[in-house]
């Protein structure tokens, strides 16, 4: 399909090139203008970049879940953002309890472990049952149906947690050791940002080596290549699909805790926007491609953090930060239009007969 | 031992699922808040009804699923399942009395325990009450399962009618009260915030009576209808249409202000749904950014008519064509980039478009032109020959006219060359192209017509409200419309109307339960996809399309031997 | 007789694989021309190139006065080339009649406004199209089954329906991709008669991909044999039967020719 389209230049192609070109022009123009104006100092840019890295590594963790599920089921698990939300929202109560008993201040490391454990196990459970109840019976159905189911499940989970825990915004307790700053290579960095970035990198390395090195990881990769053949090779396909959801759920739960550490609050709707952003990241990296999703997430985080100041401010747009999400969505649409196989370029797009 | 276990295995399994379901229902607060309304006044409340219905349903499912041959075993399983289901609630009350769950679960309040135990939450009696109710549900389910099909259908319909009458009391009462002599019926049927006991009994008897008669005579009637000549059948159909038209015309006059308002909202969603039905139902393009065109229609109308911004001062009718035209243009404009995308990618890209437009409208950057978060006020009201549509009852006619127009257009399109091209594209894009269908033009026409309808609804919406705010155009509106199309039945025009009534009308009538709206939506969407993907009122042609097994069964075995 | 469709040094590659390699084929007007060859010989790729699904990297495809290279499928079907698919691809949830009407899409003109306003021209056109579709249903012996969904037909009828859909586009050339696949001998015979009938009654040139040698030898005037994207032989059935290269391609390389 894409080949065929590429071969014959149609008016629609020209329109799309014009859109792309004008976007590029705006970005370059805006960036130059901002840099010439010199409103932001180097310090600002460093802050933007580090914030972007931290935010991006959270997106990256969530994106692995999207990308792995897409790999095995060829469906967008729209409810993955809610898997992400369920963990930290539940873990909040553990954190608050530990805060009240001073356990959090006395044994911050242990307490963090407990928070991670609670969040990851809740997210994992939700992901597991989501697949079992909502997606498994629909395997082999027309593609629209699982997608709609996922949308339904997304709202069901959001409002389930709203009903269970209330609609208020809960402030995550402050972990004192993570407050303050560190000087690294002469750059002052907020401690929690360092922790978020390091934890995310650690988790991603762990996840990637699990997928690449273990037997189960190999089986999952086999299932994403070809379900029938894997079944014939004696791989328990259903089991591997469940495992994929479980791993994705664990990553999402951990990402949720990191998100809570960064923004210090949780609420029932917190999964929706990061979910879509993480999906964008997965698409950026080429959906189905795990390292791609990780890079895509970090890239998106950076663009979102640096972008508004870099290329919107220079265009004289007031309050550019309001348009942060618009940048992410524009990225999503642009990637889907111009490079649906992602920046990493793996060809996992819809095969054509 | 193993044998005994295998006998009630199914019941326990189903019961656990039911238990989780009732726990969720209780803990999200549905029981307590639904209990504020009675089904039968001072006898049974809505929350309790919900639990009872779940219990019976679970029992019945367990009986049905059990493979055993004897009715005894099946009935036994029904009782076990219901009992297990309710024992979850008993457990909740026991735990809740011992620990303060409320610190985490906001709805695990004493009020919930009180509601669950019928007031005996602090004594052991409460637990037995819950289990007793479970047993009762199980027995009901078992009885329902064992009686002949006809009797079961009549009983269920009659009981459900009572529940529906209770739930829809806000709809029924004003209608009955509107006309003097009928108010007697209303007084007889309803009291307080529910039905009267006598009223409920009457409803049961009347419905059961009608059902019984229909059971015996229904086939005769159908047969008679078949025997009528074509002309007579046509006459009957026209008669039905005229009757329907009369009802639609006088409806706002009888039902009063509140219900007219509800009707206008439903109408607006029907309008939106029919537009999206072309894109999703006919052409198979899942568009999650549909609300963008709704917003564009509203904002164009607002900009053109509102004196607040002071750019233009057109009246509504002058602005309307512009709104629709701009909507169509944007439909094409946003359609071009996504032409190559299919399925999931298209859905996400359009979702992105919808959000981009909302964020832009909300931003300070475009504030001088679009009003930012404060929106635009003082939008011109439509008027016709000096008569201004401002009250809901008047706007209703306006929307009704819009709906009829769009229904007409949808019906015409469906059986046209273009409609067939859309459906062919939905079925198989490549083959459609190989049949001479120009994919670009056909897709863009689908996007454009959908966008046009959406913009039209947007214009009407802005005129109805009198102001526009970016917050009215969140992605939830798109999801709502998708839901109502799917629940109604994709591609089906009556389906859209049924869907809008069920998903928009019902929540408006039960506004005090608005908190659970999205919760129920989500659950309904999933349940619908799992159990009845073709929708409540499927397009005749669609009836079997979405059941995968059937289409697979038809798949021929292609020999690949050389 | 003159050639109606000519390919000249046509090459189609997929990455490193050359699916069709510098192929010259010339199809005589009003003939039944079979293309045979082992699996993966490039037969279906040839069809996809002719109908515009693939664009060959090199070479030309000439149909009468028109070059087909680079044209989109919807333009090519308008010129008069229609096809069927190896694994039947009807529109499963449209009725039989609608399937045929979609086939005739390019001969109808009404658009959005005509349909909405119910213009007399549109109505007349729809009426004619509907009559035409019913006639085609009669032609393929599915009289009175027009309102059934396509997916509910038995296999053989689906094959015929697919051909009827292709015929609705009033083609000059009809490309049939394994029309007898999965059929029993009597169904196969009926399909052969049907194909000859198409050519004799409607004067349509037929290009046929077929694996059953009995069918190929029975009805073709010319046979082209492909192997690894190259033409290894061409001629009438008798010539092909005795061609050593063909026999080697089928038997020498261990293909499943014994099946036939």
Topology of helices and strands:
The complex is a heterotrimer of chains A (353), B (562) and C (260).
Chain A: H1 2-7, H2 11-37, H3 42-73, H4 80-100, H5 103-106, H6 108-135, H7 144-165, E1 170-171, E2 181-184, E3 187-190, H8 191-213, H9 215-225, H10 227-232, H11 237-263, E4 265-266, H12 272-284, H13 290-312, H14 324-338
Antiparallel strand pairs in A: 1-4, 2-3
Chain B: H1 2-27, H2 30-34, E1 38-40, E2 44-45, H3 46-65, H4 71-98, H5 110-116, H6 124-146, H7 149-167, H8 169-177, H9 180-189, E3 190-191, E4 194-195, H10 197-227, H11 230-282, H12 291-305, H13 316-335, H14 343-362, H15 367-370, E5 383-384, E6 387-388, H16 392-414, H17 417-427, H18 429-434, H19 439-465, H20 475-488, H21 493-509, H22 517-531, H23 548-554
Antiparallel strand pairs in B: 1-2, 3-4, 5-6
Chain C: E1 3-14, E2 17-28, E3 32-36, H1 43-50, E4 58-63, E5 66-67, H2 73-79, E6 81-83, H3 96-103, H4 112-117, H5 120-139, H6 155-167, E7 173-177, H7 185-202, E8 205-209, H8 213-219, E9 222-227, E10 230-235, H9 237-241, H10 244-252
Parallel strand pairs in C: 3-8, 3-9, 6-7, 7-8
Antiparallel strand pairs in C: 1-2, 1-4, 4-5, 9-10
Helix pairs in contact in C: 3-5, 3-6
